[in-house]
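so im writing up the methods section and need the DNA helicase RecQ record in one place, dumping it here so i stop losing it
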Amino acid sequence: MQEPPLHILNNIFGYSEFRGQQEEIVGSAINGEDCLVIMPTGGGKSLCYQIPALARKGMGIVVSPLIALMEDQVTTLQQLGINAAYLNSTLTREEKSNLAQAINHGDIDILYIAPERLLQSNTLNWLSTKDISLIAIDEAHCVSQWGHDFRADYLGLHQLKEVFPNTPRIALTATANQEHQNEIVDRLELSAPKRFVSSFDRPNIHYSVQPKKNARTQLIQFLKARRQQAGIVYCLSRKKVESTAEWLRKQGINALPYHAGLDTSIRADNLKVFLQEDAVVMVATIAFGMGIDKPDVRFVCHLDLPKSIEAYYQETGRAGRDGNPADAWMVYGLNDVVQLRQMVDQSNASEEHKRNERSKLDSLLGWCEVTNCRRTALLNYFGESVEANCGNCDTCTTPPPKWDATEPAQKLMSNIVRTGQRFGVVYNLEVLRGKKTDKVLQYGHEKLSTFGIGKDVPEDTWRSILRQLIVQGFISVDINNYGALQLTEKSRPILRGESQLFLRKDLKEDIEKKGYRKSSVSDNDRELWNALRQCRASLSQSLNIAPYQVFHDATLMEMMEEKPKDKFEMLQLNGMGEKKFERFGPQFMDVIAKFR
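--- predicted struct ---
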């Protein structure tokens, strides 16, 4: 008999109720429907496929792009008493043989596997003879060739429809706008999938962006009040990762490097330290990202610009997965822009792909320069309309200086209209600044009333105006039409002179965050809090697992506040299932008893 999903949620995972759209997603998957799930990091995506995989007959398959991701999730599931396993290149021949026997005997509930291994003909043929309850394709944005983290191995996953025709497939990712969502559905050949798009908002994250002056000095100033916290610092190059980690260690910060060029064993050791110890800072390239399930990462810093808003959102999503306050802090400068543009221009990609990458970079730069609520602009980029300011970003807490850009914006908008809304950034600026290039003369646009009306404004200023107009939704970029600039309905009041437009004035002004959030642990409870953490640390060390795989901070916080006296009260805590209580409950009750 099929076990009710709420019973699985309560007894195994230790949560009293579903969050957001989880229950509807789980129900659709259990009913055999394909699903596309867009849910922010920390929103509970894993439960959306883990519970249906357990509720339906057979073994669930989870397609995962990174070894670190699958190993971490399998360990977490095993602590809950779930027979989970992974099949990847780290297994010995004997381990693979034992796993195959377990699968043949029906002893595995959920199997994590990389796309390239799953798509091997012998693997597909073998698994096609088994009862497969569900196939989850995690990090599904990797299938999008226009996305920020495309992986060619994902393109073959459309075969799963033919090999497992009666098995529901659920594609999940934290980042995908409407265009990318359609591409995921098409490339994976999902069958009339139900689409579940949650809010992209991470209200617990404070967003802050500063112009780069002295990046290291700015970073150490930011870290000054966070020396007892875990965090990630992203750098663009491997060389910078290693030099920054070394410099931070000299400043007394426990920092480790991580990039694809490091020896595999060193990377694995550094990752283990980061996951299992407190107050470790990982300095990394984007090779370090997906699969980092550590819930108590309190900050993510960018010392260099990422390539796009999608990449930025994905990387900052590593912070505050437990729902507690966290920071996304970034510094950027002109050199970042030049370096990233050079990387795009010098790549072997098609011109169409290069245009797409340039457009994404310009959108990110525009977001860096916004004067209104930074969170609102970020959500608008992903197609989520939000009107109210968040009060939890730098532009809300310390509003930047603005200038009245109505007139130059009108000139720019008018030029876009008069040139037919079919040209990109460079051409529009050439006309505005009165440059008689061959192309301008070819179209006769030197005769337009807008020709040369912007020659008194520096090109960098025009680009700043344009980027801000794009990110605020006054102008759109048609990627499929050579990056043509087009006015949106929102631009009409500006163009007609019915409303004013104010933009960021001075990009070199520092935007400092006022104050720091204090710990939510009171002085009276601090001794108990430390004792609970020490108990967790001892258990995690003895079992060679990460502390959060024993209990998340949020569960310890509830223990500290509620001080449960018996099993019944312990089971009321979020994250405390039957198996978790059997394994760890008595030890923590002993600690609490000493403080009651």
